[in-house]
Write a structure and sequence with these properties.
This protein is of the alpha/beta class. It has one domain: Rossmann fold. The strands form 3 sheets. Strands 4-3-5-6 form a 4-stranded parallel beta sheet, sandwiched between helices. A two-stranded antiparallel ribbon has the order 1-2. A two-stranded antiparallel sheet has the order 7-8. The longest helix has 14 residues.
Length: 315
């Protein structure tokens, strides 16, 4: 399926036609979740591949063979992409699924389900930069233009997959409506991967002994994933993803946005962020790059309970 120049519009959001059709998007919104499913939810470029790898290796008790022999899109297929039904029909195991869809499009499908939902968020400034470079190498995405032009579209929510602000607020503000929900940040995984693995392990009810945890930690490091052709998308033909222009797994650093944003762009972004996130149930503080990014809830007692609720398996 090529359709590299095709754009699908679904419920006001645009999607690349190379991977999405009206039928595949409709399939996702009417999906029959099983209670044993694990659904990884992200806005693009927010740690999707990383969490796919974590859940895969963890489900294999630290054995990395599957992660090193099967492409991640087969191990944890995107629910809204056209090939997903075929992948799931060939699998008899507990299913790992991935989606970039906003909450409102999956709310009905998840209603009453005990499927485990892991939501991964990332500093939106780093997301914008990573997404910009992804547009340069992914032939199924529109031309990015200058970074200034792309940033304007990102802030307006007119890029493919819609608004970052709506996506994050939609899922986190509705965490109480999801039976089993875990919230993780890219920054937490980058800063303390072992602790993040322990949280995910507990959430998935997949206890790991020390040796299994160590093996998972090794397989899920950024350097290991970057070398793994089942993860780094180097298997994809150059006509679809041109790694000469930019690598799929580029830097993986937190706070690297500072090397792309101008001071004016950063101030504009901050002002819009403050306005758009005012009604969010979760308050972020993305610190200066020389500081460790952290959640305000960890140092502000007023927000501790809200963050604690999002971290738990909700009844």
């Amino acid at each position: 399926m090529a359709r590299l120049d095709v754009t699908e519009t679904f419920h006001g959001i645009t999607f690349p036609g190379h991977l999405h059709t009206q039928d595949s998007l409709h399939y996702a919104t009417h999906f029959k979740f099983q209670d044993t499913d694990t659904l990884i939810v992200t806005y693009p470029k927010s740690g999707t591949t990383w969490m796919q790898e974590i859940v895969t290796v963890m489900s294999c008790k630290g054995d990395a063979v599957r992660a090193q022999t099967q492409p991640n899109w087969n191990r944890a297929p995107w629910l809204e992409q056209y090939y997903c039904p075929d992948v799931l029909n060939a699998s008899q195991e507990n299913r790992i699924l991935t989606t970039h869809l906003p909450y409102n499009l999956l709310a009905a499908a998840l209603s009453g389900s005990k499927a485990k939902v892991i939501y991964v968020a990332r500093n939106p400034k780093d997301v914008a930069v990573s997404y910009y470079y992804f547009h340069k190498m992914a032939k199924f995405l529109p031309e990015s233009g200058t970074f200034s032009e792309f940033l304007s579209a990102f802030l307006e929510g007119t890029v493919h997959y819609g608004s970052w602000f709506d996506h994050v607020k939609g899922w986190t503000n509705n965490a109480r409506n999801i039976h089993n929900f875990l919230y993780v940040t890219y920054e937490e995984m980058s800063r303390t991967l072992r602790a993040s693995l322990e949280r995910v392990s507990e959430f998935l009810q997949c206890p790991l002994v020390e040796e299994e945890l160590t093996s998972t930690l090794k397989s899920c490091s950024f350097s290991s994933m970057k070398k793994n052709c089942m993860v780094n998308y180097s298997l994809i033909p150059q006509e679809i993803m041109d790694h000469r222009k930019s690598k799929f797994m580029r830097k993986g650093k937190i706070g690297d946005w500072v090397n792309t944003f101008s001071e004016e762009q950063s101030c504009t972004f901050d002002a819009i962020y403050t306005s758009r996130m005012a009604d969010s149930s979760l308050t972020f503080v993305w610190c200066n790059p020389e500081q460790e990014p952290m959640l305000k809830s960890r140092r502000d007692p007023d927000h501790h309970q809200a963050h604690h609720i999002l971290e738990q398996t909700l009844a």
